């Protein structure tokens, strides 16, 4: 039985990917900072091997790649710990991981980054620089790039839901009109899982997205429809900056402003699939945005608690 290494296994995407691969009979080694955490213990009960390690501590990575065919790198800060040095830490972490993978004979690394040309923000640039470090220092890289991933625990989905639920009306900055191409979490996971056997995806970028290209303002309306709420009127405020928008989101939702900022910055430019050739390597037909939203709402633990 082949074994894959998953970093970020206690996160939203990494946790779901680990459980999916375990269900397919794939051996999983999860690199975790705290094996005693509830999410790590849950993975261990499901059959994953836990390996203590921190991508910021190169010494702790020794042995993590031994016997590994494919390694998933699903680590990024998403605005947390914003002390101005996160980009350097992310580059260092990716470099340490890539060097370990090359040294210990890992065949390939798979990474999930973000869509969007002209990465004007520090967070968006950092995501792309992470891919560059992985490709430069490690084994062949499959570099997936996605826009909003729609799932019950994704920060993008939660921000969308909170805005619709909490506000009778919303300010409407110009970036609400930018085009984006969301993808459901199940489909994103399908690409990630299949990539380990799609050898043609090695050493290349693969842009992924669902079938719908729409503006964030339209996504707000569709979220309202799925939740059974009336559409929220929007008050045009064309000159509000992404930074001010993130502060506003931090005030009116439980989403931390440091997390909201990279989310908003990702919407301040079009985030659509410009090169679908990578998607054509996979036999996957992503569901539309409305269906992805319905699935996320049905699984949303916060909505379930409210009953």
Verbal overview:
The mean pLDDT is 88. With 307 residues, the protein is of the alpha/beta class. 42% of the residues lie in helices and 17% in strands. Helix 3 runs parallel beside helix 4 (122-137). Strand 1 (3-7), helix 1 and strand 2 (27-32) form a beta-alpha-beta unit. The chain folds into 2 domains: 3-146, Rossmann fold (3-Layer(aba) Sandwich); 149-183 and 210-271 and 287-307. Strands 3-2-1-4-5-6-11 form a 7-stranded parallel sheet, sandwiched between helices. The chain is globular and about 55 Å long. The chain contains 11 helices and 13 strands.
Number of domains: 2
Spatial extent as radius of gyration: 19 Å
Distance between the termini: 42 Å
Going by CATH, what is the homologous superfamily of the largest domain? Answer: NAD(P)-binding Rossmann-like Domain
Mean pLDDT: 88
Can you give keywords for this protein?
2 domains; alpha/beta; Rossmann fold; 307 residues; two-stranded parallel ribbon; 11 helices; globular
């Amino acid at each position: 039985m082949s074994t894959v290494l998953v970093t970020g296994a206690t996160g939203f995407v990494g946790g779901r990917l680990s459980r999916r691969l375990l269900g397919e009979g794939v051996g999983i080694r999860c690199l975790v900072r705290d094996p005693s955490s509830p999410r790590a213990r849950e993975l261990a009960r499901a059959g994953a091997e836990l390996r203590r390690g921190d991508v910021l501590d190169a010494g702790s990575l020794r042995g993590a790649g031994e016997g590994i065919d494919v390694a998933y790198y699903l680590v990024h800060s998403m605005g947390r710990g914003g002390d101005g040095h996160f980009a350097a830490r992310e580059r260092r972490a990716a470099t340490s991981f890539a060097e370990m993978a090359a040294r210990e004979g890992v065949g390939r690394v798979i990474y999930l980054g973000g869509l969007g040309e002209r990465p004007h923000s520090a967070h968006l640039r950092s995501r792309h620089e992470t891919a560059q470090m992985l490709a430069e220092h490690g084994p062949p890289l499959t570099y997936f790039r996605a826009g909003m991933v729609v799932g019950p625990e994704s920060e993008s989905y939660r921000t969308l839901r909170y805005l619709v639920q909490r506000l009778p009306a919303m300010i409407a900055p110009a970036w609400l009109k930018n085009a984006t191409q969301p993808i459901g979490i199940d489909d994103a996971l399908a690409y990630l899982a299949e990539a380990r056997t799609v050898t043609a995806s090695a050493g290349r970028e693969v842009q992924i997205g669902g079938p719908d290209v729409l503006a964030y303002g339209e996504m707000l309306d569709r979220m309202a429809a799925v939740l059974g709420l009336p559409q929220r009127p929007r008050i045009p405020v064309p000159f509000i900056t992404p930074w001010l928008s993130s502060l506003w989101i931090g005030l009116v939702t439980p989403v931390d402003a440091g997390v909201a900022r990279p989310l908003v910055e990702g919407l301040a430019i079009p985030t659509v699939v410009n090169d679908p050739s990578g998607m054509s390597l996979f036999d996957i037909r992503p569901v539309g945005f409305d269906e992805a939203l319905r699935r996320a709402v049905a699984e949303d633990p916060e909505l379930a608690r409210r009953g």
